[in-house]
Amino acid sequence: MAQLSITELKKGTLFQWEGEPYRVVDYNQKVMGRGGSIVNVRIKNLVDGKVLEKTFKGNEQLSSADVTNQNVQYLYSNNLIYPSILSATMLVI
Fold first, then answer.
1. Main-chain phi, psi angles of 33, to 5 degrees
2. Is 0.85 surpassed by the pTM of this model?
3. Distance between CA atoms of 23 and 10, rounded to whole angstroms?
Protein backbone atom coordinates (compact mmCIF):
# COMPACT_ATOMS: atom_id res chain seq x y z
CA MET A 1 0.00 0.00 0.00
CA ALA A 2 1.12 3.53 -0.72
CA GLN A 3 2.00 5.87 2.11
CA LEU A 4 0.09 9.16 2.49
CA SER A 5 1.30 12.22 4.33
CA ILE A 6 -1.26 14.04 6.47
CA THR A 7 -1.40 16.94 3.99
CA GLU A 8 -2.76 14.51 1.35
CA LEU A 9 -5.88 13.82 3.44
CA LYS A 10 -8.38 15.77 1.37
CA LYS A 11 -12.16 15.31 1.50
CA GLY A 12 -13.06 11.88 0.10
CA THR A 13 -9.58 10.36 0.54
CA LEU A 14 -9.58 6.69 1.60
CA PHE A 15 -6.90 5.57 4.05
CA GLN A 16 -6.18 2.90 6.64
CA TRP A 17 -5.68 3.80 10.30
CA GLU A 18 -5.30 1.31 13.16
CA GLY A 19 -6.14 -1.56 10.81
CA GLU A 20 -9.50 -0.10 9.70
CA PRO A 21 -10.40 1.68 6.42
CA TYR A 22 -11.65 5.29 6.69
CA ARG A 23 -12.93 8.03 4.38
CA VAL A 24 -12.20 11.72 5.06
CA VAL A 25 -15.50 13.58 5.57
CA ASP A 26 -14.08 17.01 6.48
CA TYR A 27 -10.55 18.43 6.35
CA ASN A 28 -8.97 21.46 8.04
CA GLN A 29 -5.23 22.23 8.02
CA LYS A 30 -3.50 24.69 10.35
CA VAL A 31 0.04 25.83 9.66
CA MET A 32 2.00 26.41 12.87
CA GLY A 33 4.95 28.43 11.54
CA ARG A 34 8.21 26.67 12.26
CA GLY A 35 6.45 23.82 14.06
CA GLY A 36 4.91 22.33 10.93
CA SER A 37 1.22 21.80 10.37
CA ILE A 38 -1.71 20.21 12.18
CA VAL A 39 -4.53 18.53 10.28
CA ASN A 40 -7.96 18.17 11.88
CA VAL A 41 -10.20 15.68 10.08
CA ARG A 42 -13.61 14.09 10.50
CA ILE A 43 -13.32 10.52 9.31
CA LYS A 44 -15.90 7.79 8.72
CA ASN A 45 -15.12 4.15 9.40
CA LEU A 46 -16.08 2.16 6.30
CA VAL A 47 -16.77 -1.01 8.29
CA ASP A 48 -19.10 0.17 11.08
CA GLY A 49 -20.03 3.69 9.86
CA LYS A 50 -18.84 5.57 12.96
CA VAL A 51 -17.65 9.16 12.43
CA LEU A 52 -14.63 10.32 14.45
CA GLU A 53 -12.77 13.60 14.94
CA LYS A 54 -8.99 13.10 14.68
CA THR A 55 -5.95 15.40 14.75
CA PHE A 56 -2.77 14.39 12.93
CA LYS A 57 0.46 16.27 13.58
CA GLY A 58 3.68 17.00 11.73
CA ASN A 59 5.12 14.33 9.52
CA GLU A 60 2.79 11.40 10.35
CA GLN A 61 2.33 8.86 7.57
CA LEU A 62 -0.78 6.79 6.84
CA SER A 63 -1.43 3.87 4.50
CA SER A 64 -3.88 4.22 1.64
CA ALA A 65 -6.88 1.90 1.94
CA ASP A 66 -7.21 -1.01 -0.47
CA VAL A 67 -10.90 -0.73 -1.47
CA THR A 68 -12.80 -0.97 -4.75
CA ASN A 69 -16.29 -0.02 -5.92
CA GLN A 70 -18.33 -2.67 -7.71
CA ASN A 71 -21.71 -2.42 -9.39
CA VAL A 72 -23.98 -5.21 -8.17
CA GLN A 73 -27.57 -6.35 -8.66
CA TYR A 74 -29.72 -7.92 -5.98
CA LEU A 75 -32.63 -10.21 -6.84
CA TYR A 76 -35.30 -10.27 -4.16
CA SER A 77 -38.96 -11.12 -3.69
CA ASN A 78 -41.35 -8.55 -2.24
CA ASN A 79 -44.63 -10.54 -2.19
CA LEU A 80 -45.42 -9.60 -5.78
CA ILE A 81 -45.90 -11.95 -8.69
CA TYR A 82 -42.52 -11.00 -10.15
CA PRO A 83 -39.22 -10.77 -8.29
CA SER A 84 -37.52 -7.36 -8.35
CA ILE A 85 -33.96 -6.45 -9.23
CA LEU A 86 -32.20 -3.65 -7.35
CA SER A 87 -29.00 -2.13 -8.78
CA ALA A 88 -26.49 -0.55 -6.42
CA THR A 89 -22.83 0.28 -6.01
CA MET A 90 -21.05 -1.72 -3.32
CA LEU A 91 -17.77 -0.80 -1.60
CA VAL A 92 -15.52 -3.87 -1.36
CA ILE A 93 -13.00 -3.74 1.47
1. 65, -125
2. no
3. 9
